[in-house]
């Protein structure tokens, strides 16, 4: 089969698709990935086509007025280009099936024109409605079955911001002005049931495949990081990924000092700017990197302090590292709440209110949850989510 994978977003949106691409290649399929230009195609060993944008260039600080301006001036035009790019590349390559991130709203139009199935990958619960819990990114309160289901309609309304792009794609594909576009043939949810059990009211075509797991290939790290990881002295990992805004240095100082008081080293991933280590907090017990491979560093961490993105939540739990979650936005409060409800993390900490005291208390709390996290990691280690996903795609 010729299988086209299309994704858009930061690390947590891209890495699952790359793992799926490798799995499909191992099963002798011809695979192409359309992804942001941030992806290093050569390093991944995949056929990757860029969308013509770098997601990091579109990062928005958590200030509402600034976010609205950046959306109008940068994000909306970039998204329009990406939606058109997916259509053009898919029509050139002529796949047998398309597997897509929900953000790429023009994929159903392409699938209709080519008369092929398309598969949706729901990385976090925002598409498939359920009465069991509200859509991620809306509220963490259980509103009851009826209102919980209504929150998914609210999320779906966000697609209207790009309805002109979808309509233009449909016209260019010869589908008419307002065609009835096909629903996904299947929806794949790469979430571990150890973190989120499958709701009873999900439809049969939605599959909770389980965690899509680690890369399964050797991971290269630089010499200094390798030496840091080889040291037997315990350490805390801290990283907020693609998050930005607020006083990053205050956050970094609070984390470093609270860990230091407990005799723990700190590995800091500064990411896109949400975390920094001021000079006064540095030392031989602190190693700072802009980014690190989670699958290489988290298995050795005593605790992982992170923002609560779906990918990081799975990586930390899979590695057996208890989490201290500092959610910023979107689905992160949802995952912070799920980990807390499952007994795998304490209550989340405020992103603009980190102190040596509350971080220290959270580190102590996390240390007491190692047994529960180890049990969840054992469950996840037996999951073969990416292979289950590949088999479902083949069945189409």
Automatic annotation (TrEMBL):
Ranges of residues in domain Erythromycin biosynthesis protein CIII-like C-terminal: 288-378
Any Pfam family matching the protein: Glyco_transf_28
Positions of the Glycosyltransferase family 28 N-terminal domain: 3-82
CDD domains named in the record: GT1_Gtf-like
Name the record gives this protein: Glycosyltransferase
Originating species: Microbacterium marinilacus
